[in-house]
From TrEMBL:
Quaternary structure (record): Homotetramer.
Organism: Acinetobacter stercoris
Catalytic activity of the protein: a (3R)-hydroxyacyl-[ACP] + NADP(+) = a 3-oxoacyl-[ACP] + NADPH + H(+)
Gene assigned in the entry: fabG_8
Ketoreductase domain residues: 6-182
Name of the protein in its database record: 3-oxoacyl-[acyl-carrier-protein] reductase
């Protein structure tokens, strides 16, 4: 059944930042399709979203799966008018020890997936003469962190990609922006030991990790009409860790 509500697609909605973004967009009145990598994760999302959305299985490394998912959404609910590219992992290592597989995997999950998903939804957005593409980058695209050459390169690539696309699509009223989170309390940062977490906190002006909701609030703004004249930018949400 085609939705009267605008359809938002949030990748990696099963946990952490993506879960908070999906819930916020539902509160904002969108119909949300949230992805997880497993059937069980997707089912949990379908149950949690009830009539306000649905879960779907997606590995963002799989181009054919991206194509099939967006076609399915378009057919069942209507065009994706808000795309939040959030899915991501880290595979940290010093470059001397970094395998080519770990380099490729991070570039595929972050940068190539953003290319594929953005390209796939543009047709629907162009037709609607409205679109919001919001890419979750990272402070490490700007602020050096040893052991994250792959991840930093991918995130910096996403930001440069977003600026080009913002220029290309602006005349259709499609905006393309990034949010660069600092240290946010999720499973991704829970892996860090207490000593590193303490050192990280000391670098943050607000002296604490952010919450997924802090990023969801920024997405809510960039998706809204209040942000209709903002495109090609990076919104830093980092508690004063890095000041652009
Ligand atoms: P998280 O809690 O570890 O959650 C990662 C999400 O991505 C999960 O929903 C996971 O799905 C999904 N995912 C992982 N690999 C995937 C793949 N190959 N295909 C599709 N989905 C995949 O991570 P997070 O901390 O919320 O991070 C979310 C985004 O924010 C990422 O892009 C990350 O780089 C960025 N970020 C995070 C921080 C931070 O401090 N946490 C800081 C800066 C930027 P499953 O549950 O099915 O595994």
């Amino acid at each position: 059944m085609t939705q009267e509500r605008k359809v938002a697609l949030v990748t990696g909605a099963s946990r952490g930042i993506g879960a908070a973004i999906a819930q916020q967009l539902i509160q904002d009145g969108y119909f949300v399709v949230g992805t997880a990598t497993s059937e069980s994760g997707a089912e949990k999302l379908t149950t949690a979203f009830a009539e306000n959305g649905t879960g779907a299985v997606l590995d963002v490394r799989d181009g054919a799966a991206i194509d099939a998912l967006v076609s399915d959404i378009e057919q069942k609910y209507g065009p994706v008018l808000i795309l939040v590219n959030n899915a991501g992992i880290t595979k940290d290592n010093l470059l001397l020890r970094m395998s080519e597989d770990d380099w490729d995997d991070i570039l595929n999950i972050h940068l190539k997936a953003v290319f594929r998903l953005s390209k796939r939804v543009l047709k629907g957005m162009t037709k609607a003469r409205f679109g919001r593409i919001i890419n979750i980058s990272s402070v490490v695209a700007h602020f050096a962190n040893p052991g994250q050459a792959n991840y930093s390169a991918a995130k910096a690539g996403i930001e440069a990609f977003s600026r080009s696309l913002a220029k290309e699509m602006g005349s259709r009223q499609i905006t393309v922006n990034c949010i660069a989170p600092g240290f946010i309390a999720t499973e991704m940062t829970a892996e860090l030991n207490e000593d590193i977490r303490k050192k990280m906190n000391e670098q943050v002006a607000l002296n604490r990790f952010g919450e997924p909701q802090d990023i969801a609030n920024a997405v809510s703004f960039l998706a809204s009409d209040k942000a209709s004249y903002i495109t090609g930018t990076v919104l830093h949400v980092n508690g004063g860790l890095y000041m652009a």
